[in-house]
Amino acid sequence: MADVKDLINLPDDNIDMIAATSVLQQQAADIRTKTINWASYMQSQMISQEDYNAISALDTAKAAYLQKNSAQAVKTLLNLLAHVSKDQTIQYILVMIDDLLQEERSRVDYFHEYAKHHKECVWGPFLNLLNRQDGFIVNMSSRILAKLACWGHELMPKSDLNFYLQFLKDQLTVNANEYIQSVARCLQMMLRIDEYRFAFVSVDGISTLISILSSRVNFQVQYQLVFCLWVLTFNPLLASKMNKFSVIPILADILNDCAKEKVTRIILAVFRNLIEKPTDPQVAKEHCIAMVQCKVLKQLSILEQRRFDDEDISADVEFLTEKLQSSVQDLSSFDEYATELRSARLEWSPVHKSPKFWRENAHRLNEKNYELLRILVHLLETSKDHIILSVACFDIGEYVRHYPRGKHVLEQLGGKQIVMQLLAHEDPNVRYEALLAVQKLMVHNWEYLGKQLEKESENQPQKGGSAPISGKA
Prior knowledge:
By secondary structure, the chain is mainly α. It has helices at residues 23-32, 38-43, 49-68, 70-83, 87-103, 108-117, 124-129, 135-151, 158-172, 180-190, 194-202, 205-213, 219-232, 236-241, 247-257, 261-276, 281-293, 296-304, 311-329, 333-342, 355-361, 367-382, 386-402, 406-412, 415-421, 428-442, 446-459.
């Protein structure tokens, strides 16, 4: 995979930026075959003689005219965008601009130089077109904006940048957006530039990428959005914070299900960056543990048995296997517990049921301003998963049982009230674990409670079962 220095100049075909069959490309191919009657525009005085001459020349010998008359070409193209209202003509002009930029990236500078010389805003005409009703005009304008922002020496100003990135983010969430590949492509370009990455994070872009990846999207969009995460992780600070958005669990799920080699390749590249790029070794270790928790080692062992044309895949599989196995050897039971909790994927792993674990570690739920305890309470409040709720109730009970001030702390965090509400939950296992947690919150004589728990356990349903509940709080 490319190093960060190579990201800006990474050829589009090398990173599979957009499928040739995308809706935007199909429509652009159709628009190129159209002929615009520029003479009628001049006769009706909608365009000047100067602009008529320039656009006619561009129509017949684009490269030759542009080389000798770059300022006039840019002036005419921007004039036409400003003064022509017909959708079909606007579409044609946008395709012409996009084609001339695609043919030679340095032509982006013609636009920047013209705007600077005439004290005009090069971004304005294209940002305005994002408000049009025509989907092709909107998305072709967006594609040109990305090229102007990424291929020239001028960065997009902050206010325009935030508007544009918010637009891209919103377009990703449009239901059944037929242009989603083009939207994702623009993001793939923008996020290769470090200055744009933090702006994207500030509009809550990572959460949006993760939300879409956790839904069902086709493999091409999947690849493009994971690519966006990959380029974000080249920034060490973002790589350190990435898993706060549950990136590892979501990508581990996709890795488990995907059949496309390029999706596998890009996910492994993200995982590698999450280990290599953070400057704090502890963060890298936490990422390793999170991957172990999400069963990535099992997937790596399966991938080791397959033959890949791409050497990067084999190298990344080898690197990740070594790092994850090493982290497993150093893994304490508390590391394992904390990682499971942060992943928000609680299950009945052995650590929960270990009295020794709770005796030694209950107080550690108070670290970092009760970070882990707050996560438990948050899961109780928000999760719809019956197993997660059951395990979280159990853990809350063990915390107050083994930490003397636990009841007071839990009450301050609002946890007691939430556990009480779960006594009426539809699932019998959740009700049972909530009942035990409430008993531990209420009872002061632990020896007496021990006998009570023995009686309760006779009626305890099997995990995943639905036996009736009995007992009193």
